[in-house]
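User: I'm writing a short methods note and want a consistent example. For Cell wall hydrolase, I'll paste the sequence; you return only the structure tokens, no commentary, since I'll be parsing the reply automatically.
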Amino acid sequence: MRAEAEGEGDQGMLMVGNVGVNRVLGNCMDFKDIRTIEDMVYQSPGGFEAVQKSYFYQKARDSDIRLAERSINGERYWPATNSLWYFRPVGECPATWYSQDNTGRYKAHCFFSPQYSDCPNVYY
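Assistant:
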């Protein structure tokens, strides 16, 4: 979460956590059979770019661990509440990404959620 969104503050990092948890719980679309946090983070293709950078492998701080626990325990924030994707565009957020609707922007990241019919498990 930190390596993906530290510049977005705690709430931005929590939103990245929301996306990660949704990918594990979703069992849909590009995330079928992703059952663990480790599977989700290292999924290729479709995982997180941060795993390719040394910054990702730094020891987690206590505050990072607490944020991850909050996401795992179900703390959710719009626009990432039901999202499976996010990215940092140059300019405006596109209306869709991987056929998922743009649910909003938080600072530099745009978030995208599937339709309920495509991935009901992320709507809990």
